[in-house]
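Late entry, written up from scratch paper. The run itself happened at the end of the previous shift, but nothing got recorded in the book at the time, so transcribing now.
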Amino acid sequence: MLALVYVAGVTQLGEAEADSLRTPPAVEGDVEDEFTGLKWALLASDRLDEAQEAAVTDPEYASELASGAPDPRTGELSAALATLSEAAGEFDPVEVGGFFDDLDERLGTDSASWLAVMYPAVLGSLPGAPFEAREAANQILLTAASYDTTQPDSPERPWNAEVERPPREEVTELIGSGRQFVYIDPYNNAGDGSWIEVVGDLETAETVSVLVPGGSAVLTSDNFDIYYQRAQSFVDAADGELAVVVWAGASWPSGWIEESWASWAAVASESLASFTFDLRSQIGPDVPVTLVGHSYGGAVIGLAETQDLAVDRVLHIASAGMGNDVYDPEDLDEPCRPRYSITAPGDPISYIQGMPYVPLLGHGADPDDFPGVKNLYPGYLPDAPDAVDDTGTLLIDRGISGKEVEGVHSHSEIFYPESDAWNNILAVLLGQEPELDDDQPAPIDGC
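Output as recorded:
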């Protein structure tokens, strides 16, 4: 059985062996007539707001749009979109952004948003496409996915003609919720789903963080809402200064057996590294970006740091490790990048931090001991009568008001709002000076 699991890990790792990023196809001819013709052929209105509303509120229409694909025979624009759709992850997201900037200049500033209604399945998962268009496309895709789950997946028979299938609950609840997904795939992870979600306002935020969740980061897990609530607590406290992107845009392990393997992190880290450049191109060069990983997410950001990244600082929260086979600052692409870590005393994650190297197994060095890392003070939970945990439950009702952040439950308590740990995490996200723990790793020479 162990041999089979190992082979599965090797297979997963093979997905990480990507070729160099491709340049998007050029659209050099006059495509205005083609663009106008597509709008008339596919959409219910010639006004963008009405077309978007119709697609989101009419499930059958949304399903029809979601299943549509650009026909390369229609013209140069459709051919380019078809190419981008067929191999979305193979293109440089920054250059894909330039592709849409060029379309805006030629077709009008809302061209990507129009295309998001016409072809939501293309825009919704296309790295480099404008975030606003991707969010609009994914609202249509959610409506379509909810509707599609109610439809029979087999020919009608006398015994199933009157049977009603309920919509998929965790998908249906998101329709009209106001949550902002720049990627969501309800069918990835063997049907459990994956996502990338913006919490806050990227256009006005003075600093941005990318939060990579721990294990079981799928739509069907409680973690889907818990990490949203955790991100929202930081955004609310920052009063507009901060936006957080919850990044779970890859296949993800669930359970301690799968989470002990580095293969998922190896694959996810490549997509994450690419996403940081996508994000940077959309928010501009001057907004600081903090890359944050919790639990298994720490292993993902650790391996991402062995690659080229567009981030300014890194934070490990109760992290599984610095990444498989990462034991020295020289293993990282930028050893002197500001780097922080926080793990509470007694957190079970400490049993796997810093395991000796085994191919594909374990997650490298202990971030709390890694040279150059600054360890944050975990401290205590708040003792205010209205203090809550990361799901909104009163701490006083749980009998843990004011207690030290330590032990088995500290793996989650580290996120409880207004705790010392939470305050120090928020300080890092805002680029402020956090309170440091007494024990600190050695600095890196030359940094």
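Strands lie at 180-185, 194-199, 207-212, 242-248, 289-294, 313-317, 339-342, 374-375.
(Scratch paper discarded after transcription.)
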